[in-house]
Amino acid sequence: MRNILREERTKNGLTQIQLADLVGVSRQSIIAIETKKYTPTIILALKLAKALNKKVEELFFLENDD
Amino acid sequence: MRSKFLLPHQFKWIGYIIAPMGIILWSIIQKSHFPHHFLNLRALILTISACMFVFGFFFTVFAREKIEDEYISLKRLETFQLASIIQCFLIITGFFLIGFAKNPMSIENQMFYFMGCIFFYYLFYIARFQYVIQRANKLKG
C-alpha cells in the first residue's frame, strides 16, 4: 500500500512526534507507516486522516499487489 | 491500544533490577557452603533468588512501553513468535542430544540445558524487542 503521509505531514508543518501525539501513537508507528514498513489499521488510518484534514483515500492508495 | 495482560511501564525497571540481583544471589549461594543447621536458610535464599530472577524477567517482558500502540503490539507478537520457534528448536535439539549422542549429558547438565531453554525465551524476547524498537526509533522516515 502506498501513502503520502510524510508529504501531508510536512505540508501541515508537523513533525513525526507532533503527529504521533495528535493521534495517540508512538513515533515509531509514524516512521513505520511513512517508510511503508507498516500498514495501519482502519482506526489509525481514520485518525491520521482527521489529523491532517484529509480523507483516508487521499492519504492511502492500494497497489496492484495488495 | 489496550492490552489486558501487560503490566505498567514501571515494572520494566523493577525487572531490570531484580532479575540480575536474583541471578547473582543464586550463583553466590550455590557456591557457598552452609553449616548443616543452616541448610533450610540456604534453601530459602535459593528459592527467593530464583523467584527474583523469574519475576524480574517476567516484569521486563510483560511491562508496557511508554506508548503501547498497534505497531508496538505487532512487534511484540512477532518477537514472542520468533522466541517460541527458536526455543522449540533448542528443546528438540536437546532431546536429540540426550537420545542419540555418543556421550549423553549428565542429568545435572540436562537440567541446566532445559532451564537455559526456558530463560533463553525471555532473554531473546527482551533483546530482540528492544532492538526492533530502537531500530525503528533511529529511522528518520
Task: Give short descriptive properties of this protein.
heterodimer, A: 66 residues, mainly alpha, 434 Repressor (Amino-terminal Domain), two-stranded antiparallel sheet, 5 helices, 2 strands, globular, B: 141 residues, 2 domains, 4 helices
Task: Give the arrangement of secondary structure elements.
The complex is a heterodimer of chains A (66) and B (141).
Chain A: E1 2-3, H1 5-11, H2 16-23, H3 27-34, H4 42-51, H5 56-59, E2 60-61
Antiparallel strand pairs in A: 1-2
Chain B: H1 10-31, H2 39-62, H3 70-100, H4 107-138
Helix pairs in contact in B: 1-2, 2-4, 3-4
Short description:
By secondary structure, chain A is mainly alpha-helical. In chain A, 56% of the residues lie in helices and 6% in strands. By secondary structure, chain B is an all-alpha fold.
Percent of residues in β-strands of chain A: 5-15%
Determine the mean pLDDT of chain A: 92
Return the CATH class of chain A.
Answer: Mainly Alpha
CATH superfamily caption of chain A: lambda repressor-like DNA-binding domains
What is the total number of structural domains of chain B?
2
Helix content of chain B: over 70%
Q: Structural class of the helices, strands and pairings of chain A?
A: mainly alpha
Note down, in words, how this protein is organized:
The complex is a heterodimer of chains A (66) and B (141). Chain A is mostly helical and 66 residues long. Helix content of chain A is 56%, strand content 6%. Chain A has helices at residues 5-11, 16-23, 27-34, 42-51, 56-59; strands spanning 2-3, 60-61. The model of chain A has no long low-confidence stretch (mean pLDDT 92). Helices cover 77% and strands 0% of the residues of chain B. Chain B has helices spanning 10-31, 39-62, 70-100, 107-138. The chains are: A mainly alpha (66), B mainly alpha (141). The interface between A and B is medium-sized, with 18 and 14 residues.
